[in-house]
Design a protein that fits this description.
Layout (H helix, E strand, L loop, with lengths): L2 E5 L8 E2 H11 L4 E4 L6 H9 L5 E4 L3 H15 L3 E5 L3 H4 L2 H9 L4 E7 L15 H5 L5 E4 L6 H13 L5 E7 H5 E3 L20 H13 L3 E5 L1 H5 L3 H10 L4 E3 L14 E4 L6 H9 L2 E5 L5 H4 L10 E6 L13 E4 L2 H11 L7 H13 L13 H11 L5 E4 L3 H9 L8 E2 L10 H11 L5 E6 H7 L3 H7 L4 E6 L4 H10 L15 H7 L3 E5 L2 H13 L4 E6 L9 E2 L8 E2 L4
Helix pairs in contact: 1-2, 1-7, 3-5, 3-18, 9-14, 11-14, 12-15, 16-17, 16-23
The chain binds thiamine diphosphate (TPP) and magnesium ion.
Thiamine diphosphate binds next to helix 17, helix 19 and helix 21.
């Protein structure tokens, strides 16, 4: 390895800096869009980007958190890794929430952080932070690059690890001298990762067990998680479910994996799931989990979860199987490969017409409900109307809170990769920047950011990106003047002591939008919304709608913490 230690100021065409090597490696990975923010330790990288002359679209967000959530939205919708660059120290630590969010929701990211020069590592140098230490528990993998020689290989590995198996974030920390110095030789060999070989194909014997369980079942139920979407398994799932007429429910992150309007779909399950879906879990005799991780917001009290069921679990991550729910038929596999093998082996479906009748009766008797005084702006109505106005075709991103649950309940997703929400970490401030990333991934598609008045204020600085790029993202603030989900819990479990959850003071969101040269409007009635929404959606530019909804509305049904999945409150008015 030959490395020139002189700082590079004006590289000759033939001589490259480590940063040039990085840029070449990113191009080799067919990276088109980078989200980032410059600073001292990444100056050589930004210089190399400048000199790369338009090979990439670099999106300068106004905060590193905006960059990483935008990259998550991009990854979710584009189905390939989102790429982020931030500087050392505060730049890197500003990314931490988004890295943890991507880890929880299995989103592929390659996150490049600058680091102080190797000569001062460990001296508490200016803007030094232990990025490896901080990100080890929240990344699928992380690297600190030791030489520019190894950079091409590290980048290849990083993209491979982020996007294969169970996707996740990979951090590549690059000391400034390594990106700045000239480099004459690089390792172009192919990578070899013997310790990382995700199991993609299912064990056929396990699939045989599943086919036998399906044949015997009187009350089968399929549960879709995000793994169906990551594995591109929606089409084959639909074929199997239709052919054997098996009902389907979903986690929050699995929405869109199966068509939301389909007769076999029972709605979302879990804390704010439908009565039909949750009772189906409580009563089924066979639960087939495909790519969901049985998290507590889905299961409620584990003592009551799927108690009567044989549990089959398809997951590409073996660590998920049996983690929370004892599993009778473990299937470590890519979701599509597992379903393909199931389709091949399955010759006979379940005999379950009584079960289907029961589920259909539940659907009729206990639909989602809300009171709807037409003179009021009712948040559930708002989500349902957004669904109709966009014919279910929009890409919808959300923040976290009541509006997120209403969007999940009332916006019905017909296909995968249209629903972008922060599930595992529940990150307020996610929705708006994620919409920016989603819009960049699909420039022609309608993108709506459904955000809370609280969460929006955590990342609204990214309005600058809309202004600068003219991205036609539509922002719907479900403005209840409250941290609504906190208010709901305080109403239910803290005797209405609304500690710090009713927010009296807000900016004028319309003026705020206008100050960024973005169309803003305040919507106070159903009529106003109906009158304008088609025009808003057709408008070829960003629009912010400040929708003033009723503050006292709660999300129902609800499973209280500690309760079983069958113990819902608010099932009926
Ligand atoms: C970063 C972060 N901080 C705090 C919380 C806790 N939390 C969950 S929902 C919520 C209220 C969100 O309020 P808003 O954005 O207005 O949405 P609403 O529930 O009113 O629809 C809070 C504070 C969180 N999820 N994320
Ligand atoms: Mg709110």
């Amino acid at each position: 390895m030959k490395v020139d230690t002189k700082l590079n100021t004006k590289p000759e065409a033939a001589v490259k800096t480590g940063a040039d090597i990085l840029v070449e490696s990113l191009l080799e990975q067919k990276v088109e869009t980078i989200f980032g923010y410059p600073g001292g330790a990444v100056l050589p990288i930004y210089d190399a980007l400048y000199r790369s002359d338009g090979d990439f679209e670099h999106i300068l967000t106004r905060h590193e958190q905006g960059a990483i959530h935008a990259a998550e939205g991009y990854a979710r919708v584009a189905g390939k890794p989102g790429v982020v660059i931030a500087t050392s120290g505060p730049g890197a630590t500003n990314l931490v929430t988004g890295i943890a969010d991507a880890m929880m929701d299995s989103l592929p990211l390659v996150v490049i952080t600058g680091q102080v020069a190797t000569s001062v590592t460990g001296t508490d140098a200016f803007q030094e932070a232990d990025v490896m230490g901080i990100t080890t528990p929240i990344t699928k993998h992380n690297y600190q690059v030791q030489s520019s020689y190894e950079l091409p290989k590290v980048i290849k590995e990083a993209f491979h690890i982020a996007s294969t198996g169970r996707p996740g974030p990979v951090v590549v920390d690059i000391p400034k001298d390594i990106s700045a110095n000239l480099c004459t030789e690089t390792d172009q060999s192919a990578f070899h990762l013997p310790g990382y070989q995700p199991t993609i194909k299912p064990n056929p014997l396990q699939i045989k067990k599943l086919t036998e369980a399906i044949k015997k079942s009187k009350k089968p139920l399929i549960l879709t998680g995000a793994g169906v979407i990551h594995g591109h398994a929606s089409d084959i799932l639909l074929e199997i479910a239709e052919e054997y007429s098996m009902p389907v429910t979903s986690t929050l992150l699995g929405l869109g994996a199966f068509p939301g309007q389909h007769d076999l779909f029972l709605g979302m399950a879990g804390m704010h799931g439908t009565y039909t879906a949750n009772m189906a879990i409580a009563e089924c005799d066979l639960l087939i989990n495909i790519g969901a991780r049985f998290d507590d917001r889905l299961t409620g009290n584990l003592n009551y979860f799927a108690k009567n069921a044989t549990v089959a679990h398809v997951d590409i991550d073996p660590a998920e199987i049996g983690k929370n729910v004892p599993t009778d038929i473990p299937i470590v596999s890519d979701s599509k490969a597992a379903l393909a093998e199931l389709k091949k082996q399955l010759k006979e479906g379940p005999d379950h017409s009584e079960w289907m009748d029961q589920l259909n009766q539940n659907k009729m008797a206990y639909p989602l409900w809300y009171n709807n005084p037409p003179e009021e702006m009712v948040p559930q109505w708002l989500m349902k109307s957004l669904y109709h106005a966009t014919r279910g075709e929009a890409i919808v991103t959300t923040d976290v809170g009541q509006h997120q649950m209403w969007a999940a309940q009332y916006y019905s997703f017909g296909r995968p990769n249209r629903w972008v929400t922060s599930g595992g970490l529940g990150t307020m401030g996610f929705g708006f920047p994620a919409a920016i990333g989603a819009q960049l991934a699909k420039p022609e598609d309608p993108v709506v950011a459904v955000v809370g008045d609280g969460g929006f204020q955590m990342t609204l600085q990214e309005l600058s990106v809309l202004q600068e790029r003219g991205l036609p993202v539509k922002i719907i603030i479900v403005n209840n003047g409250a941290l609504g989900m906190v208010r709901q819990w305080q109403e239910a479990f803290y005797d209405k002591r609304y500690s710090e959850s009713i927010v009296g003071v807000q900016p004028d969101f319309v003026k705020l939008a206008e100050s960024y040269n973005i169309r803003g409007m305040k919507i106070e009635t159903q009529q106003e919304f109906t009158d304008i929404i088609h025009e808003v959606m057709a408008y070829d530019g960003p629009v912010l709608m400040d929708c003033r909804v009723l503050q006292q509305e709660n999300v129902y049904p609800m499973i209280a913490p500690g309760k079983g999945i069958h113990e819902m409150v608010g099932v009926k008015p």
